[in-house]
Amino acid sequence: MGKPQHGGNGRGRSPFLTSYALTLAFITFVSVLYFKDFSSTLHQPFLHRPPRHHRRQISRPRNHLLVGVSDFWIEKAGKEQATAEPAEVQLPFAVGAAPAGCDVGQGEWVYDEAARPWYQEEECPYIQPQLTCQAHGRPDKAYQHWRWQPRGCSLPRQNSFEDKNKDIIEMETEEAYGMVLGAVLKWVESNMDPKNSRVFFVTMSPTHTRSKDWGEDTDGNCYNQTTPIKDLSYWGPGTSKGLMRVIGEVFSTSKMPVGVVNITQLSEYRKDAHTQIYKKQWNPLTPEQIANPKSYADCTHWCLPGLQDTWNELLYSKLFFP
Predict the structure, then answer these.
(1) Do residues 3 and 10 lie in contact, with contact meaning Cβ atoms separated by under 8 Å?
(2) In terms of DSSP bridges, do strands 73-75 and 80-81 run parallel, antiparallel, or are they unpaired?
(3) Taking Cα atoms as reference points, which of 259, 256, 296 lies closest to residue 279?
(4) Which residues of 243-276 are buried (b: 16+ CB within 10 A; e: fewer)?
(5) 297 class by beta-carbon count within 10 Å (0-12 exposed, 13-18 middle, 19+ buried)
(6) The organism sits in which domain of life (predicted)?
(7) Percent of the chain beyond pLDDT 70?
């Protein structure tokens, strides 16, 4: 029997070599095809692609294929699309859309006595005294008449209650406070490990701005107070028993133990412990203030050493002797 002939018809060729050749040819074909698409993609203008926040909103059409090396769409038929329209997203609280190309931060100040100001200083009861320039003697009013005018568009008239497309939920203070504490508690339970962590909630620090609250003259405050309040039933008007109850109810359901450091009640008694007028004054006192010290007495902050050292004792007790 003679040796196998390797003629031109190839019938004696090894099956292994034939499979190898076909595989190599297939890989070569795919590589060339892929390189063509890849090189075409690389020539897309990367420096001009949409901003990141726009790219995240792109809605993928069913008849398109997303190429992972860029943010551009390539049709199945092979026609390249260099851009894609972002899907319209309805943002919470939005009742309209800004004009295209409008940047409200770019513009100029325009003097407009007809449109500004919106209100008079004395008409708004919520302005703090340190902000009422007219009441404290500022001689001019020109600063009130300047209006900001963006380039190419205008600011919408500020009126949060004008549009009918609104959903306003009126809540009691205690209910709203409970929702806030619930959100805090949810974060605590998700991020804190009770095996190696401790969590404490410190209640509100009270103020003593009206001496009539504890039965003294109606025009006084914490100024010249030298002794604590002796009435153990005293509860200042600035502190809510309802909120204190909510604190207890919310944290009593926690999976993560939360230690409540109640500084409120014991601090309510200490009308004598505030800094009063005995602190660094950042601005020179006026003759009127010097003549009436209680007018600038600080009845919010506390002297040290003093009451706040007791707060630390409470925390120490809760931490090491729960």
Answers:
(1) no
(2) antiparallel
(3) 296
(4) bbebbeebbeebebebbbbbbbbebbbbbbbbbb
(5) buried
(6) Eukaryota
(7) 69
Position 57 confidence tier, pLDDT thresholds 50, 70, 90: very low
Between 47 and 143, name the one with better pLDDT: 143
How close are the terminal C-alpha atoms of the chain, in Å? 99
- Domain edges within the chain: 23-44+58-84, 107-150, 173-280+287-320
When the pLDDT of each residue in the chain is averaged and rounded to a whole number, the result is 77
What's the length of the chain? Answer: 322
Contact, 60 vs 66, CB < 8 A? yes
List beta partners, residue 276: 298
pTM of the entire predicted model: 0.55
Looking at residue 291, what DSSP letter applies?
H
Q: How far apart are CA 20 and CA 205, in angstroms?
A: 82
Q: Kindly state the average pLDDT of the residues 277-285.
A: 87
